Amino acid sequence: MKKFLLLMAAIFAFGNENLLVSAGGGYKKIVEAVAQNLKKDGVNIDTSFANITAIMAQAKEGKTDVIVGDEDFLKKSDLKITEYVNLGSGALVLATKKGVKIEKVEELKALSKIAMPDATKTVYGKRANEFMQKANLSGELKDKILAVAGVPQVVTYILNGEVNAGFINQTN
């Protein structure tokens, strides 16, 4: 990720324009870390974090220079993306609140509340839906699902103990 952003930043560093990097909320920590390092080197860089649908809307208006997000999701959009660079890989994971342990998929049925990102606007919400459908759990978990804006909100609900578990991304 750093090499790609450094290359993009070098292009903008020679002008007075700011490089706007837009990313899903689940990528905030890593994107902010890279942005802070680039700012120390005098690069004009701004960041924007939202769900992928909002990011694509910003991009259509010409308000973003680099998008950090899921390639499959972006390829299905009508954006004219000139280049894709692999920055890592992500996986759908189930995080649980302290004291809750899940060893088998069927054990999800015993949970009272499960948070997940919005399935229509986020990559990992869509992935969570796909997982539940393939595991034949969509119907059984329907009333237990708390849909929230994105991965950061899922994590907050888990940490606050307001849900038993939640679907999030693990990015490598």
Task: Give an overview in words.
By secondary structure, the protein is α/β, with parallel strands linked by helices. The protein is built from seven helices and seven strands, in the order αβαβαβαββααβαβ. The strands form two sheets. A four-stranded mixed sheet has the order 4-7-5-6, with helices on both faces. It has a three-stranded parallel sheet with strand order 2-1-3. Strand 1, helix 2 and strand 2 form a beta-alpha-beta unit. The longest helix is centred in the first third of the chain and has 13 residues, at 28-40. The chain is elongated and about 55 Å long. The termini are close together.
Blueprint of the fold:
Blueprint lengths: L1 H12 L5 E6 L3 H13 L4 E6 L1 H9 L5 E3 L2 H5 L14 E7 L17 E4 L5 H12 L3 H4 L3 E4 L2 H9 L5 E7 L1
Parallel strand pairs: 1-2, 1-3, 5-6, 5-7
Antiparallel strand pairs: 4-7
Low-confidence stretches: 1-14
Termini separation: 11 Å
Helix content: 25-40%
Sheet of most strands: 4 strands, mixed
Structural class: alpha/beta
In the sheet with the most strands, the strands line up as: 4-7-5-6
Short description:
This protein is an alpha/beta fold and 172 residues long. 37% of the residues lie in helices and 22% in strands. The chain is elongated.
Main features:
172 residues, alpha/beta, four-stranded mixed beta sheet, three-stranded parallel beta sheet, 7 helices, 7 strands, disordered N terminus
